[in-house]
Amino acid sequence: MEKKQKITGQQRRLLFGAVFLMATSAIGPAFLTQTTVFTEQFLASFAFAILVSIIIDIGAQLNIWRVLTVSGKRGQDVANEVVPGLGHAVAFLIVLGGLAFNIGNVAGAGLGLNAMFGWDVRLGAALTGAFAIFVFLVKNGRAVMDIVTQVLGVLMIAITAYVMIQSDPPYGEAAAKMVLPDEPWTMFVPIVTIVGGTVGGYITFAGAHRLIEAKMTGVENLRFVSRAANYGILTTGIMRVLLFLAVLGVLAQGAVLSEENPPASVFQFALGDIGMRVFGVVLLAAALSSVIGSAYTSASFLRSMHTAFDKYNNIVIVIFILTSTLIFTFVGRPVTLLILAGAFNGLILPVTLGAILLAARRKSVVGEYRHPTWMIVLGVIAVIFTIFAGVMSLGGLADLWNG
């Protein structure tokens, strides 16, 4: 039985910390580009894809967050209980994928500082890595992480909302197409892509692992956990809707988006000369928050593999950030690794979510807790969609091999 809880100030900080850690992990440079490109392709009908993806995201996240926090065990540990060794395999894929994506995140932060101040992209990436490392080395680093991700998340949403208002989108048309889109059968690719980008790989575990670390576990905290899970998805959804409407607005006014940097051209068209600098702020916030979220969550998948990873978790996080920053700064972004990581990202969620759905009714994992059937059904739908997403992402490997 889920009991009502009176949330203390510390719990409220933790609640929003978990929410924004998950949400800002999802809202990275790829999020900005994908939303812009799909809006340009499907126009107002993309609202339907956003709505469907939010429903699937909630199904995936509620299942994962509730089962993990009731059990008090991280994703890899639950997977190991379902199939021995599966959790270790998943942890390896998530850390490898997270490292590769973090190279893109620090690159995005460098591009953001370049747009704002004209700094060299590699210098900007190095400064971003240094700041992210500082967050985890400072005293009470977890509290600092919570605050930083919240500030960056609110900043991104506020700026994008302003751009949306300035672009004056056709709200009525977007609302109508949300339920009656043109050719809805063509929406499969954008739906599975943005689902994978919102709850794929390490992202959906970010907030749950943060709550487990803070000891917000057990049946008595389920209402709190469910609220955090839903808020996380809704926060990501709000950001996507705001960006979608901003893009739709400038397209309705006749804007032609740049092929090299579609989201930047939206900000330029809506805000004029200062638009590129404003976009730089959003890109920096998105990239920096994703660096923090990726590093924290990827390192959390190593904590149960050896006591050293748990004891020196902050050092592991610092090494993770330092490695991805140095790779970009001195080597550049390795295309092969990023494509492999994309394929892994699409495959990780159905494997891990599938294991958690199997564990949801196991007393050895969740005790006497009875996981709701409707959540399991939503979870199964999410598994089916993300299996297709993973298979489709493997096409990038073939293209790379043939190219």
UniProtKB/TrEMBL annotation:
Question: What InterPro entries does this protein map onto?
Answer: NRAMP_fam
Question: Membrane topology type, per the record?
Answer: Multi-pass membrane protein
Give the location in the cell.
Membrane
Instruction: Name the residues that span the membrane.
Output: 42-62, 82-101, 121-138, 147-165, 185-208, 229-256, 276-302, 314-331, 337-360, 372-398
Question: Which of UniProt's keywords are assigned here?
Answer: Membrane, Transmembrane, Transmembrane helix
* PANTHER family tied to this protein: SOLUTE CARRIER PROTEIN FAMILY 11 MEMBER (PTHR11706), TRANSPORTER PROTEIN (PTHR11706:SF2)
- Protein name as catalogued: NRAMP family divalent metal transporter
Q: What is the lineage of its organism?
A: Bacteria, Bacillati, Bacillota, Bacilli, Bacillales
